[in-house]
TrEMBL record:
It holds the Pfam family His_kinase. The chain crosses the membrane at residues 7-29, 309-328. SMART domains: HAMP (SM00304). The lineage of its organism: Bacteria, Bacillati, Bacillota, Bacilli, Bacillales. Its EC number is 2.7.13.3. This is Sensor histidine kinase. InterPro entries: Bact_2-comp_sensor_kinase, HAMP_dom, HATPase_C_sf, HATPase_dom, Sig_transdc_His_kin_internal. Keywords: Cell membrane, Kinase, Membrane, Phosphoprotein, Transferase, Transmembrane, Transmembrane helix.
Amino acid sequence: MKITFRYRLLASYILLIAIPLLVLGALFYRTSLKIITEQAQKNVYEIVRKNNEVMDTKLRIVDQNSMSLFLDKDLFRIFNQLDPANEAELFAADRQVTAVLSKTFSQNQDIFAYQLWTSYFTFGQPLPQGEPTQSDIYRMARQAGGKLVWIPTYEFASMFNQPYLQGGNLEFRYLFSATRLLDFTYLSNTKLAKMDAGVERPVLAISFKSEVLKSLYADSIPGSSRYMVLDPQDKVVASSEPGNVAQTYKEAWLNELQREKSGARRMTLNGEAVIVCFDRSEVTGWMSVVWIPEAGLVSSLVPVIRTSITALAVVMGIVALIFAYFIAGKITKPIKRLLSAMRSVGEGDFQTRVDVVSNDEFGMLTQRFNRMNDRIHLLVTENYEIKLKEKEAEIQALNMQMHPHFLYNTLNVMNWTAIENDQQELSRMLVCLSNMLHYTSRKTWDAVPLSEEMSWMSNYFYIMSIRFEDKFTVEYDMDPRLMEHEVPRLLFQPFVENAILHGFDQTGSGGLIGIRGWINGRTRHYEVADNGRGMSAETVQRILYQKSSSVGIKNTIDRIQMTYGGEYGISISSTPGTGTKVVIALPL
């Protein structure tokens, strides 16, 4: 379908509007994303830090409350005087211990359970723990020697070796705990009393559900975010993905964060650009990590940008249509007049003229057209007269032309005359000259087999060797497979002539011309080398790329490239005093 100039002009207007709109929209989107991302990064980082501060405050209270038990008078008395073998005393002591622990920890809504463990009894809230003194929690508390130890989230059944609970729906399946060894003391009348040496020191165990941390983060970070709380060994204390809780989470990007205390950065995780904010608890040493997809931050912004750009594009498109309609009319009307006039000229009416109606570029174009039309009319008239004169000259030239057959007959008579007078060398020269004339006077100038070219070169070398009195010799080294391949006519002659006339002009004898040919892959190579006086690099460049006296060489280069393409041609290497080498490359 033919597209008129008016429609192309209209399309160009719309395109000129569309491109800036797209660029501005992209810049607006990127700028908005950058601003929102930076602000979100600051906000989320502050949320992570505040959450850690809130949690640290709660955990410090637990630490302080547990430390207060060291000086508890009732606990000191109970454990220092308790007889583990007396079951009645144990149950009575359990009621008293539970009351003390309840008074200390029951106000903290985050605590799930508080207990005192000994090898003979578990005091406090009852849980199906079996023998808690066989757990890692008990072992770590005793190793810490009174220091509070925070145990990251664990599976209850595995920690206390209760396999029968594995399949159950426990509300306390995942817990994290704080534990410490309690060595009670009592201050009486300014005297510090310590527990007897033989009395077993109990271990305090305070347990929290993992949902405590989950509720802290789930309500404070954006919905598309994910979070994770890790201990220094990459064990998951809490996570937005429940399947990761109590597991070890090893990722290279987390290793970078573990080496720092706090910060925020932009990263790419699983091909998705995210903002990562992290902070480490001063109480537990656990690291809280929150990451948010950048795309989710601007998901609500994209429709606004799309609507704005679409509305602007519609308005600008209507404006473009109106402008294009009037401007196209101003442009296409004079063009149509010129086209109509050109159609008349094309049909042979050189008297056609177009009225000049303005002084702008179209008026100048119309004036130029009228002037050009006058000039064409004059040239056509002159050309017609010249053609008549050329026809007359051609007829005269044909009448005076000498037929080449006359030259062959004349050379033949001269050859027999030389034979009759015993001039064998002259006879051979005449035969060579006749062959050369026949080779070069063919009506067509097509490529010829290499064998014919080499035959012509033999005649040429014979005549030139007689002329220059054996100043040079010729050596051949030609791959037999090349003989039936065609080459441009007189391919070697300009280079051989250049070697004889210029390369050996200062040589009395000993000149050597080598003609080689070989095949390399899909390329034929022909080489003409001499041991003459050589040329400078400037002379080689002038012969190959500039106008010079070597018309035959330049003509040969042009013929090769026009016939076979620009990747084929001639290269010349020459060193003054050592000779010249010409390599011709042709396709196989």
